[in-house]
Amino acid sequence: MPESFDMPAIGNFFREKSNSLSSAITKRLSLMRDQFDDDDEKVMKLESNVTEFNLSGMKVIVNLKEQGNKKLGRVSFFSRSNCRDCTAVRSFLRKENLNYVEINVDVYPQREKELIERTGSANVPQIFLNEKLLGGLVALNSLRNSGMLEKKLTEMLAGKCPEDAPAPPVYGFDDDDDDDEMSDEMVEIVRVLRQKLPIQDRILRMKIVKNCFAGGELVEVLIHHLDCGRKKAVEIGKNLVRRHFIHHVFGENEFEDGKHFYRFLEHEPFIPKCYNFRGSTNDNEPKDAAVLGQMLGQIMFALLESYASDDRHHLDYIGISNSEEFRRYTNLVQDLHRVNILTLSADEKLAFFLNLHNAMAIHAVIRVGHTGGMLDRRAFFSEFQYIVGGYSYSLSGLKDGILRSNRRAPFSLMRPFPSRDRRLEMAYLKVNPLIHFGLCNATRSSPAVRFFTPQSVESELRYAAREYFQRDDAMQVDLAKRTVYLNRIIKWYSADFGQEKEILKWITGYLDATKAGLLTHLMGDGGPVNVVYSSFDWSLNA
């Protein structure tokens, strides 16, 4: 390199070369146009759809658009979440690169009425070509097998889509039924209390307790407002605690008259960390926990069907964040504020917490992002929270506190819930090790993201375990080295699986025939077996 540059000279050099190149391209294009007009043989070259010409030091390729049968119409189909036939239709439309509109009646329940009016039943899938009903999966397969499908598509989609065809879902509009939700019968009393109670910081047990009031103050306000006796006012206070409008500041009792301090749910210290809280608590009558769990599951199933890879190991988080399904999900999780989880059956409870964990992990990636390893992700696991049934739950709280019987997380010195914590009422007494294959923490080494149904949650967990151990990064056997390679999840949560010998024996029941045969042979010849735990890939499953 020279020690100095003549900048003006360099600038002039590039300008001259640029002008020369532009002139050469223009001249060459002009000559080619004249040649194509005069020479029929060169025009025939267009049949290849690609014309090449060369300039000095440059090669230019012109791609001509193919003139095919352009389909102006629209393919629409009505579907439901977690429907096998709907999945088949969706896969076919994607494989054929057909633009389509999917109307999931679980996500858009008001469209079910339209489905019945157009088809005479609520069965799905139902495919429409413009405004004309094609039918379901049977009709689609019949046309495919007869070779008439392409002709049918060309004929029925040749014209522009009319206005009476099924309309695409519109982003940002809620169903009218959402406005008809009933307010809790106690909400009028709560509004009065919020206005009249002296809410302030107090000193209790040498601590400053923020935004609280005394039980006696609440009783006095109720007596004057409702013109009732003290006993009646105390009963109302207890009802407010049971409905999670208020809680004792230390969670020590339900409600008592006197100098016991309480605070409203929206004033709890954990509120700033709760991402399903939008400025105020949901004062509507709480939905039934089983119904709410089903609604959440249906929306998340729909998200996976639209924004996950076929094996569900990779998610399109940008697509999810911009979707109508996710917008509706973030609205629906506000109904968790005061839901009564204790009404759930055993299977409903297991599916509820598994699904909530996986949905929260997706929400956390979108809202707070994705960081490095386990130690770096403590904020991800602990700081991202939801209000559920009046209490805060993080990803660690759901996994380690509820599903793992309040056991310590890896590299943690403390249990998720302290003693006498009200959330311990929801914790399982015994750990089911299969939960580890149903929980996804948004990493590539974690199990595939999935959601569960209460009716089949146990069998779905067993299937998830079998699917997980088919992966090479989850389990491999090397006979020559007498070594079994396992994912580090097994090591981190060894307290849930047992000793190494017990783990290997337990895993055998979830392996395919090849891996099970290798492991059984290795364990049965009496020789030593080495167990090596593979490194964990913490990169995002995107």
UniProtKB/TrEMBL annotation:
Q: Which PANTHER family match?
A: ELECTRON CARRIER/ PROTEIN DISULFIDE OXIDOREDUCTASE, F26K24.21 PROTEIN
Boundaries of each DEP domain copy? 193-266
InterPro entries under this entry? DEP_dom (IPR000591), DUF547 (IPR006869), Glutaredoxin (IPR002109), Thioredoxin-like_sf (IPR036249), WH-like_DNA-bd_sf (IPR036388), WH_DNA-bd_sf (IPR036390)
One Gene Ontology term of the biological-process aspect is:
intracellular signal transduction
Organism equals Anisodus acutangulus
CDD domains according to UniProt: DEP
The entry's protein name is DEP domain-containing protein
